[in-house]
Amino acid sequence: MANPKVRGFIRWRNWAKKDWAVAAVGLTVIIISAITFFFDSETDRLDIITLEDLVDLTLVHNAKDRGAFCLDGSLPAYHFQKGFGSGSTNWLLHIEGGGWCDSIESCSFRKRTKLGSSNSMERQVPFSGILSRHQSQNPDFFNWNKVKIRYCDGASLAGHPENESKNGTQLYFRGQLIWEAIMDELLSIGLSNAKKALLSGCSAGGLSTLIHCDSFRALLPKDATVKCLADAGFFLDEKDILGHHTMRSFYHNVVDLQGVEKSLHKNCIARMGKDYFKCLFPREIIKDIMTPVFLVNPAYDFWQIQHILVSVETASHGHWEKCRLNLNHCSPSQMEILQGYRDSMLNALGDFQKNELGGMFINSCFIHCQTWMAETWHSPTSPKINNKTIAESVGDWYFNRGVVKKIDCPYPCNPTCYNMDFL
């Protein structure tokens, strides 16, 4: 059961009929709610947040020369915290999440938010979880150089300007150029000399991590240890409860609108033929990635349950309104369907489980994104599998301390879970 403060913040959120059109905004509301809870002044967590944990926004000024713009034409941005001690030559990058836009309407709405314009972004953000500078929160990466890449293109940093002529409005589809401009700037301030590096991301940022993983590896010294971590980015190509391929249709629109095909792996494009847009699904992406990858994903990802399996439009069928918001309200037949969704995820990960270089932490929690908050990344009450937190599992994998392929038992078996409650 989620903390009542989480329930209180989320209860007022009114899901609109155009949920897909503003999917990114919905996720942002949830993230803001979580931030408010985890850094609430009434909790004892505030005492570990100091001025040093607040990291300034940096605009990518060389982006203008490259034509790399957010949806509204503003400059892309990131937050950078310099490493220290033994971590001064190591780098951890984290790509922000926030859904996608698949139409002129939804992208036009998005460009007026912080997910489409740096003009609306916070000037400072706290670094916690995988970005924390505190060893107690982040035992393996606390003193690394750390970067939070802001997400402002609506296509997982993979859009291309050639498709702008189709939109008839002032929208910039420059995700790939944003990625390249930010990489150039980071390389110039020390990333080019990295000894160790980890590219990570949450949700749409996790998907972006998978898309750019090999190109990130190619930018760094050959003798550097370079790996990638996708958090809640393993989106499934599954039918909803009415038998519709909602996510497949949505991704098709995103790929066609923003020209994402040009950023996807050529082998996959050739393999999929007329279904080229399916190359945006992680199940296909991981078939071609050569760089070691770690996947963190809840088997009952609330975003996927609420947008892929049971959207607002389908919730009234079979009385899913409460179940999709709190798994404690699911009937036995509904839980059977949710267990089937978990089975689909494990099936999609079947080949990856055989990947000797890959790692995974698939827990049975009703949550979405677990690496960027101390409470779910590494704390005394963090979700665990085999008595290991996500941070400990990722660290064991990154530093080759052991094989890490952790798959939880089915819900509700894990008492350490943070399960969100939207009722």
Report on this structure.
With 423 residues, the protein is of the alpha/beta class. It is built from 13 helices and twelve strands. The protein has helices at 4-11, 23-38, 63-66, 104-110, 175-188, 204-219, 246-258, 266-272, 282-285, 302-309, 332-348, 374-377, 390-398, and strands spanning 54-59, 77-81, 90-95, 124-126, 145-149, 196-202, 225-231, 293-298, 359-363, 384-385, 388-389, 405-407. The strands form two sheets. Strands 4-1-2-5-3-6-7-8-9-12 form a ten-stranded mixed beta sheet, with helices on both faces. A two-stranded antiparallel sheet has the order 10-11. Helix 6 links the parallel strand 6 (196-202) and strand 7 (225-231). Helix 1 packs antiparallel against helix 2 (23-38). It is globular and about 55 Å long.
Series of H and E elements: HHEHEEHEEHEHEHHHEHHEHEEHE
How is the main sheet built? 10 strands, mixed
Query: What is the distance, rounded to the nearest whole angstrom, between the alpha carbons of the first and last residues?
Result: 11 Å
Oligomer class: single chain
